[in-house]
Design a protein that fits this description.
This protein is an alpha/beta fold. About 20% of the residues lie in helices and about 20% in strands.
């Protein structure tokens, strides 16, 4: 009996020693599943036990790792961003090394958000101004206090701050305080980008699909990106462009008039973008004075410009008659809002060009009654233009109830816009990598 036991013990010892001498690779994780992570997000951690080099990668941008690779045992910290949709979501972390693969699954709950809550939800939209500066000319003339003053004034426009009967959009733009890595910004809401030549053609910038400019974007689900650079101007053109914006998306299964629909039923994500989905503002006018209603009119008022472009970014069209090819010379309400009086824009533009050279600085208060009149092309009624989505010559400080409804839809459904979304806006599938997405810009 005893001999046999010794023999067995010896055999086991030999087998174990054999394993060791082969150096069988080891790759283990201390936990392969995190369920019901809070919608608020947070930090998780797990240990990797490894006999050699390994790499770890998350398949979703809302779930990031502090260390992407290592050579031995390591504790990995996982940062999970807040989930602002009502859908539960899952990310997988793949850890590979020496021919072995381990997966860690992270499931995060969605927030409790429904149609009823969405109706009165106060959206807080972080804004980041990416200010392009010529590397040779040093620091920018655009100072921090100016950026804050502009965004504060935009908030007035969006919250009936003028107390002029404008619809309160129940939202606020706030200067971002942290960058995408969570690091505190030295200047709230500002990233300064030094380039060899900051002057760019705004159309070329906005429609570029060659990933030339998309690198400047911060995740549009977290920030509204405002690019600030001097727009290249064509001396032959009589007008200058002050700002330009992309229109937001809706999904194929949730169509909404006047929003952009991807070719297949996907929800676009940051990683799908080949072009810089954003607002661009002409830096040449950023320090121009604002209009004062009834007293002073400045067509290049940067506050009116930014409010207008943010209106496009949140799904509004021009309040005047316009088709995909430009101004219409007939009566058709084209902004999907019945309470913004339609007017024949082509007719008005002709009147303007005959009235005065297109130079807002020369306009005196005595000109206002003529320039500041619009005729409703359906009813013939005349009114003083004040809608933010009109321009030249409009006081641009007013939104309507129908415009509120459109913006609410975009805030609660559109991807690539910060803030909580209803499930119906996020239920369709996501895809990885770059996608050739349709786009539309408006100025
Ligand atoms: Zn516009």
């Amino acid at each position: 009996m005893r001999d046999k036991v010794v023999f067995l013990f010896t055999l086991v010892t030999i087998l174990f020693a054999g394993c060791e001498s082969d150096n069988a690779p080891v790759l283990e994780v201390s936990q392969d599943n995190f369920k019901d992570v809070s919608s608020d997000g947070g930090t998780l951690s797990f240990d990797i036990t490894s006999s050699g080099p390994w790499t770890a990668k998350s398949n979703n941008s809302w779930c990031t790792l502090d260390i992407p690779s290592g050579t031995t045992n390591q504790t990995i910290k996982v940062t999970v961003r807040a989930n602002k949709s009502s859908e539960t979501r899952t990310a997988t972390i793949n850890i590979s090394g020496d021919g072995l693969l381990k997966k860690v699954s992270i499931t995060q709950k969605g927030i409790f958000f429904n149609e009823e809550i969405a109706k009165n939800y106060h959206y807080v939209l972080p804004v980041i101004f990416h200010i392009f500066e010529d590397a040779t000319s040093g620091s920018s003339s655009l100072i921090r206090s100016r950026v804050k003053a502009i965004i504060d004034a935009c908030n007035d426009y969006y919250s009936n701050g003028w107390n002029n009967g404008s619809a309160d959009m129940n939202l606020e733009f706030t200067l971002a305080t942290t960058d995408p890595q969570g690091k505190a910004l030295t200047e709230a809401g500002i990233e300064r980008i030094q380039v060899s030549n900051a002057t760019m053609d705004c159309d070329d910038f906005m429609i570029d699909k060659n990933r030339e400019y998309v690198k400047y974007l911060w995740d549009p689900d977290q920030y509204i990106n405002i690019m600030v650079y001097p727009f290249k101007t064509d001396p032959k053109e009589r007008t200058v462009t002050l700002g330009i914006s992309h229109l937001p998306y809706t999904s194929k299964s949730n169509p909404y008039p006047g929003l952009i629909v991807p070719n297949s039923d996907i929800v676009p994500r940051f990683e799908n973008l080949a072009y810089p989905y954003c607002v661009s503002i002409n830096k040449s006018f950023i320090n121009a004075p604002a209009s004062i209603v009834g007293t002073y009119y400045n067509a290049s008022d940067p506050i009116a410009t930014l409010s207008h472009e943010l209106g496009h970014y949140l799904g509004l069209h021009h309040s005047f008659n316009e088709g995909s090819q430009g101004e219409l010379d007939f009566c058709e309400d084209t902004d999907f809002c019945e309470d913004t009086p339609p007017y024949n824009r082509a007719e008005y533009s002709t009147f303007l060009s005959n009235y005065i050279p297109l130079d807002g600085q020369r306009i005196a208060p005595a000109d206002y009654p003529k320039l500041m009149t619009r005729k409703n092309c359906k009813t013939g009624a005349e009114s003083t233009p004040d809608n933010t989505m009109d321009y030249e010559y409009s006081w641009m400080n007013h939104f309507t109830a129908d415009q509120y409804t459109r913006i609410r839809y975009v805030l609660s459904h559109s991807p690539l816009i910060p803030g909580p979304k209803l499930a119906s806006g996020t239920r369709t599938r996501s895809v990885s990598g770059m996608v050739d997405l349709p786009m539309r810009t408006m100025k």
